[in-house]
Write a sequence for this structure.
């Protein structure tokens, strides 16, 4: 019997600035594909063809205790890759003690900053929704997935799924 690797420690960095002790929760981006139905002549059923990345995958939400001036200074950034966030997590199996380092790096800009409710004596929390244009998932130092939407790059397990398409259009 094997036990799963569970998150033991984490940190979030905003442009290299550590939020250790301040980050309450991070919702990492979902990975999803946009699959569309197709049923051609002579087909007894439909298939779903791959239309690329899902429309809603490039969202990452995170929460900080209290308020943070840096995220407010980043509000309204003009570029789709204005600043970088890095999630660093340490996962461990409780049967073997084996640990894994998981890192997610995104570049993007904030779509929403929600200050929540403020009442003296109560907990305060700021929730930030960051929309990314660049994403990289690394496990134990090995790059597993890298997506650069404006650059047309989608690397999975060392294979660039978009390389031939870029070549086909002269890039």
């Amino acid at each position: 019997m094997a036990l799963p690797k569970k998150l033991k420690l984490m940190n979030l960095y905003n442009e290299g600035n550590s939020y250790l002790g301040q980050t309450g929760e991070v919702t990492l981006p979902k990975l999803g594909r946009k699959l569309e139905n197709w049923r051609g002549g002579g087909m007894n059923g439909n298939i779903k063809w791959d239309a690329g990345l899902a429309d809603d995958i490039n969202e990452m939400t995170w929460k900080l205790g209290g308020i943070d001036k840096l995220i407010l200074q980043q509000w309204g950034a003009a570029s789709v890759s204005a600043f970088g966030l890095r999630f660093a997590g340490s996962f461990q199996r409780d049967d073997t003690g084996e640990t894994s380092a998981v890192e997610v790096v995104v570049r993007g800009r904030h779509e929403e900053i929600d200050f929540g409710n403020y009442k003296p004596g109560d907990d305060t929390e700021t929730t930030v929704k960051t929309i990314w244009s660049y994403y990289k998932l690394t496990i134990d130092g090995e790059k597993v997935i890298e997506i650069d939407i404006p650059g047309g790059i989608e690397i999975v397990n060392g294979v660039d799924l978009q390389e031939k398409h870029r070549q086909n259009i002269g890039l």
Remarks:
- The chain has a mean pLDDT of 95.
